[in-house]
Amino acid sequence: MNFLKASHFKFTKNQRNGIFLLILLIILLQCIYFYINFSSEEINVNQTQLAAFQKEIDSLRLVEIEERKPKIYPFNPNFITDYKGASLGMTNEEIDRLLAFRKQDKWINSTKQFQEVTKVSDSFLNAISPYFKFPEWATNPTKSFEKSSYSFNKTPKTFNQKIDLNKATAQELQKVNGIGEVLSERIIKLRNKFIGGFIDVVQLQDVYGLTPEVIERINNEFAVKTPRTIKKIILNKASIDELVTIQHIDYNLAFRIVEQRQLREGFKSLDELKKVKDFPVNKIDIIKLYLSLD
Question: Of 223, 227, 187, which is closest to residue 207 (Cα–Cα)?
Fold first, then answer.
């Protein structure tokens, strides 16, 4: 108690008045800070420059949106696959009608016939038909053409008549319409990557620059008569480490395949792999070469 009565806590009248004025001054300054706007009264904006700047931003945004749109290149609608059709915006039913028509060994030779077969809407047809690229003999049937080593109408060769793709030379490959020195070298380079060569012609899908039309022509002239021997992996028993040894399957995809297999309590068919997230549907025919269900 004697400590509280010490002179440290005793103020004279003048000292008390000084403390009161100091507190009052602090409160006054805080009020001035909060209630008085010290910023400049008005910001001058050049509306013309602002409008021009906004127009430039909008223009750049439109360019960016346009660049992000998937680009469509000319293609022959006869060779639309499940993946290609889906990327174009076709429904499963429309794709199935086209594939069923092609299985009859029939060919679509006009935009009108494409719509008759697939039953696509007029608006969709108008959007994609500018990219259709039919063979010249289909668009100009009255024009005479020199006979080439490939023709849609010639009698298909039997398996025995075809050349073994695993033994074909660059010169033999170049006889196929659409294959020059560059593509023939790429085919042989890919073949040499595998000890024993190709398993099936479908592996040509991995050759950069080969269109489905050219692959079809190769298939008419060549066959894999001496496929390399492989031990197929059982899909419903395979580990992640086994799956990643297959072309086009990385660790993440292998993990999702195993996860989906557990959810399904096993795959009933290899085509069910298409339902796995991020599965490369356009490469399923190659992947199926390495797999079996049992």
Answer: 187
